[in-house]
């Protein structure tokens, strides 16, 4: 096998055995140069001498040395920055839980290798490392070399983003223009002083050329920091990046030798034009506002941060997909370049935080300080311990209900609804509507009755071109697949969420932000969002090794199931297929909107959704209100433009169904108390079953013998509800809900102050 580079491998094994021999012969087969060290000291000495690309450390035995300690010693050396370190671990005995790799990664290991003395297995492992991590490290080294070459280049080089923000200038550019790079990086070209010697229309000519992805070169008068103009020969090359779009412009300049000549250039279209200009690009700013997300661009082409910042450069270069977080990191790296040491160190800490995956999750106090909040977060925002066991929690097979209409006694149309129930439904547009009374009056089938009324109010049948009989059949099928045995996650909860969603859709700003397809999608999503819920959390299902947890890879298990099953139930029979008469394009759009909203109810991304809503909608709208107090018309137009963008409509729909899903603390007190009792009972039942089956207890505070329901409600409101409903109220204007929330919170606090653990205070003596 041919290699571009002959890799060097260091084997750190205290004793020679079958495993060390297998790696030795695997290196020989692959054509890698190999060294063996028997002690940590000799390993460090050999590594400093050879700078191996791959280090294999025997972590099977701690008698001779600690593998993690050896890894840390190697990582402490500067030469290990691009080294792949492999930990050889023993095989996990049958029946035992697979240990986490996180401690190994934290110690500095790149990956692990489970003990296998087959030469072929070792050979395959080395080849995978070579073609993966090692080649990536070669690219990082090459990038550093490229920037080193640019730093020593005699021509002035400037790199800007697609939005014309300066990301890099080399020392020759600093010398030519009289600026320090710290004064330039992060600034838009339009912010820099211009020379008045350039022809007026030349900038548009250049812009037209480079926006087409074509190279431009010619003569341009640039204005130095001192104020004098300098005539330069400039070549501007657009760089195509992620998505086939222009991501950067590279400008190479050198002083023009003859200041008296008129120079003409020929661009690649063969067009002749007088050439006197530099690449002052056209400003494409939506609504003349600066989009700060575009200040820097693709991490793979980030500006040089010199050797002292090379670790940061490596992190940026390793990111191959352009993302907002990549841009943020680029901005921080650019800021570090011109910052004092103390500031640069603080920014390094910021970068460490940004590289975590829990960017939107607040840091909790210790478990002893607030066990209720910790258990709620652990139970609702994680997928459990990922421990598979012999205890399988399997869903009942959801089937199309094989019941006649006479058995269910469900009306075919609104006109067939009994008068007592119809009278109740007259108040469904009020927030105080009592869904529990409807539950009792309909024999635990409130979803079909309420669905018929709300869907008619919003013209859903007309939009879908389906009959009311088809809608009735669909609602019947969906409701039959909710588990009436669940104390909380049953069809009454679905009806409650549908009611809240409809209420929100009637609020002025919500209605003005969404079109009818959005409304229909939201109502359908609310109806199906918990269909076939087993009354157990995602964490429970993952720990129990349920069929669905395996099917959905322990990720958003229930929410994925609800969305998938809803469409399966809908399309399997023409009598209940409410989508059968809409065209394919409209169905696809509607389907994606429904799926997105159902998945938004999954709690692991709760803080992400809330923060995005606040930052993308609440804050810009508040800023417009503050800055446009004298112009109501433009204020209204500006807010509408924010609300009506496709991205923000998506955020509004997600926020709406999230708030509808957990609106119980904002309901009138008696409803709030009843719902609190129901969810607590469901959590108690889960804890009981976890103990019976020997599963990890996800929420230990929900032990029916010791739990304080008021404390659990206080924690839930503090941690999940308050901020979310503050943001939603600021947008949708819901003073009544916020008043209920305040009163209910006082109620639970009062019970807690009395040391009462139940739903209601004890009767007076």
Structural class of the secondary elements? alpha/beta
Helical content stands at: 40-55%
Strand order within the widest beta sheet: 2-1-3-4-5
Mean pLDDT: 82
Proportion of residues in extended strands? 5-15%
Number of separate helices: 30
Uncertain residue segments: 258-322, 385-409
Compute the CA-based radius of gyration: 32 Å
Profile the largest sheet. Answer: 5 strands, parallel
Give the beta-strand count.
Answer: 12
- The shape is globular
Distance N to C terminus: 89 Å
Describe this structure in words.
- This protein is α/β, with parallel strands linked by helices and 765 residues long.
- The strands form three sheets. It has a five-stranded parallel β-sheet with strand order 2-1-3-4-5, sandwiched between helices.
- Helix 18 runs antiparallel to helix 20 (516-528), helix 20 runs parallel beside helix 27 and helix 25 crosses helix 27.
- It is globular and about 90 Å long.
- It comes from Coregonus suidteri.
- Residues 149-213 form the PAS domain.
- Its EC number is 3.1.4.-.
